[in-house]
Amino acid sequence: MKKLLLSAMLFAASTGLVTAQTVQKQIVEEGGTGPFKSEVVGDASCPGFTVYRPQNLQQVVAQKGALPVIVYANGACFNNNVEMRLLLSEVASYGYVAAAIGPYDEADVMAQWRGVLKSAYPATKGKVVMANGEEIKPLTPEEIKAQQEEQAKMMAQATKKAKKAAAPQFSTYPKMLLEVLDWLTEQNAAAGSEYYHCLDLQRVAAMGQSCGGAQVLAIAYDPRIRTCVMLNTGIGDMEMMGATKECLKNLHTPMFYMIGGPADIAYANAQKDYERIADDIPVVMLNSKDGHSGTYYEAHGGNYAKAVVKWLDWQLKGQVAQSALFLDDEYLKLKFPEWQGVRKNF
């Protein structure tokens, strides 16, 4: 028996597999509005990522079966997912395990969004209220002028530095999404892991916001990906993170674009993507009036979180009733009167 145990330990050491070890944990917005209250987890065996999952994971799986998986890439391709914490926590509360690029961080979510919203307030948005009840007002003309002057100063300094040094590199890269999917696959198969037999790896979504959407496109060819969720993003004629319009030819799963309307910097590129996606790939695009920042700062991720949950429930859980938001214009108008939707290849 001792020899068998020693052999098993040596094998684990030789393969480099370390079972999941939760070392940090927090609960956001009381765990979301879904039936399975969520938590945010930092894991010692996967320090470059943050996991959003239901609390009491084993109990939830015993009740509902193995859970679908989401791999997520951040806006600006940041190595930090705090700005999407409200949405990801909300989605997890509906029975999903989401692994997001970026190490566990307990930064103030609202502090992150306050600056973003002040500098990118869409005229179409109207009143903006964050999850903590704080109202964000548009910049005054004086504030806009001061901001523009500061941005011009920073641009001049950056240009000066760029002449003396190589261009800075992003700290994240697209294949991180596949690497964390590999880690989840290993943990799902490892007896003793917190995720042992908890994950349904036949139901995997890749999701990204803004630059993170380019990272999703770059790995969308992977056969394990069953659907892609593209938030405020589009590649258009750009090249970003190794992704170009050629990546659209590699798509093999249904696509959902959630865009913030003409005020969204990604709007034009998303329209080009929609037109270029092949005729055998189902695609839906919804447009709101929220601009590039969506509703991620609102309570429980706002209406964007609701749309994401409905898409995932339809695509990964087979809940056909949830398809109404994406296929029925009357239903869309009833639920979100200001949104516009288009679809093709269904």
UniProtKB/TrEMBL annotation:
It comes from the Bacteria. Keywords: Signal. Residues 1-20 form the signal peptide. This is Alpha/beta hydrolase family protein.
